[in-house]
Amino acid sequence: MKNAKRIMVTSMTALSLSLLASTAMAKADENTDSTQKQNTIQSPNDSTQQTQDNTQEQTQSATNSTTETTNPSPEQSDTNANTKQQTDNQSQQKSQHANQNHSESDNQEQNTPTPQDKVNKSPQNNTTTNKNENSSTSARPLSEATEKSAKNKEIHNLTGEKFTTIAHRGASGYAPEHTLYSYDKSHNELGASYIEIDLQMTKDGHLVAMHDETVDRTTNGTGRVDSYTLEELKKLDAGSKFNEQHPEYADEQYKGAEVPTLDEILDRYGTDANYYIETKSPDVYPGMEEKLLDTLDKHHMLTNQSLKNGHVMIQSFSQASLEKMHNLNSDVPLVRLLDKGELPNLTDQDLESIKNTAIGVGPEYSDLTKDNVQHLKEMGFLVHPFTVNNKADMERLNSYGVDGVFTNYADVYKQVVDESK
Predict the structure, then answer these.
(1) How far apart are CA 306 and CA 156, in angstroms?
(2) So which residues are the signal peptide here (predicted)?
(3) Could you tell me if 266 and 295 are in contact, meaning their C-beta atoms sit under 8 angstroms apart?
(4) List 168, 187, 206, 311, catalytic entry
(5) pLDDT-based confidence at residue 308 (cuts at 50, 70, 90)
(6) For residue 232, with 0-12 CB atoms within 10 Å meaning exposed, 13-18 middle and 19 or more buried, which class applies?
């Protein structure tokens, strides 16, 4: 009996010791996990360790739940600890891989230019500060002026040619500028799309073809055009100086060439030719715009058919003159000429203002780049640069997307256009 009691006491003691050992092992695991978690939180790699913390907390919770429910033996606790360590290692590897992918994605975003970066790097936006300040203008919906310009461009489609050849002062590379000889050659021989005519006004109110305000450079006379009556102006020799300056193209018949009037030019070519007319110095000649429109109307150049076929284009450096012309007859297609260096300083707001009256711009050709030509085209402008006499420049400008050029050598430009077909 006493032996039986001893055996029972011994068994109970052993069981108690076993339970105590299991409890101690469980607490040791808990303390170890707690220490690992604390160390993980203090790690500098927040992205990686946050993922590891979540995994450890989930594993610890599952382990504690199992321990509390089943009270495993020390051998089972060792097995669970090994399983937990393997799970932690796998979770850490996944977290590190995810963090590496995120870092690579950040690098790609830094190296890939945003749409704004592309705009800022655009040469278009390196022209002036004002351009950058007004860059939002081009992103706005089409204004009423823009829609009107687009409509005018559709109506006044010029000659339908992809590239328009504008004979600058006639065939002025081969004959005396702004004489009937020069106009004849450009229209009859060189195949120019347009005859360009610069207008001045005589003392008695006649519109005549001459570039300068004075007669000194191209004739044997001196003084201002508006100091001469038409009869006096007709006595001047507008051809001999060309022969002296260009002996390779000199012609005896050029001697004594007269300064022609606009009426004489329109009488000579009628609607068989197209005319690109510039109002020169309109501030010097009050009423020039009205007189020009009256003359064109007299020669049937303002009919709907003539305007649709692009028989007449009117150009000026003067915005005030173009606005006056537009107010007098809004159906006449107008082109705003731009001095050298002017285009790079124009903001989109400036261009929108020009577009209120003009369907095209005529910049000095050296101001043009591929980017600003495309920008002008996107805004709805025709682009006709002046004065382009070099074949390489013609080819380059055509590649930019201009709609034509002013040139002293219409035949050379026609050749460039033909070779590009």
Answers:
(1) 10
(2) 1-26
(3) yes
(4) 168
(5) confident
(6) middle
CB 320 within 8 A of CB 252: no
Superfamily of domain 164-419: Phosphatidylinositol (PI) phosphodiesterase (3.20.20.190)
Residue recorded with tokens 């347009």: 194
**386 neighbors 361 (Cβ within 8 angstroms):** no
Domain borders along the chain are: 164-419
Q: What is the pLDDT of residues 327-351, one digit of tens each?
A: 999 999 999 999 999 999 999 999 9
- 265-279 tens-digit pLDDT: 999 999 999 999 999
Residue 34's H or E segment, with its range, is helix 2-41
pTM of the model: 0.65
Centroid of chain to Cα 115: 14
Length of the chain, please? 421
Q: Which amino acid, one-letter code, is at 262?
A: L
Summarize pLDDT for 100-131 with one digit per residue, the tens. 333 333 333 333 333 333 223 333 333 333 32
Q: Is 312 exposed, middle or buried (0-12, 13-18, 19+ CB in 10 A)?
A: buried
H helical segments located in 177-226: 180-184
Q: Supply the DSSP symbol for 189.
A: I
- 384 classed as catalytic: no
> Angle at the Cα of 159 (from 417 to 338), degrees rounded to 5?
75
In sequence order, what are the residues at sequence separation of 6 or more whose Cβ sits closer than 8 angstroms to the Cβ of residue 214?
222, 223, 224, 225
* Owner of token pair 């303002």: 302
* Nearest-10 Cα torsion for 273, 404, 170, 158: 20
Specify whether the CB–CB gap between 282 and 288 falls below 8 A.
Answer: yes
Q: Report whether 319 contacts 327 (CB < 8 A).
A: no
CA distance 141 to 121: 23
Cα(367)–Cα(369) distance, rounded to whole angstroms?
A: 7
CA-CA distance, 127 to 397, in Å (whole number)? 19
Are 265 and 177 a contacting pair, CB within 8 Å? no
Confirm if 407 and 166 have CB atoms less than 8 A apart.
yes
Q: Mark out the alpha helices in 42-143 (DSSP H runs).
A: 46-70, 74-111, 115-121, 129-133
Q: Which of 156, 206, 211, 311 is catalytic?
A: 211
SS3 240: helix
Q: Residue 211 catalytic?
A: yes
Q: Helix, strand, coil: what percent of the chain each, to 5?
A: 60, 10, 30
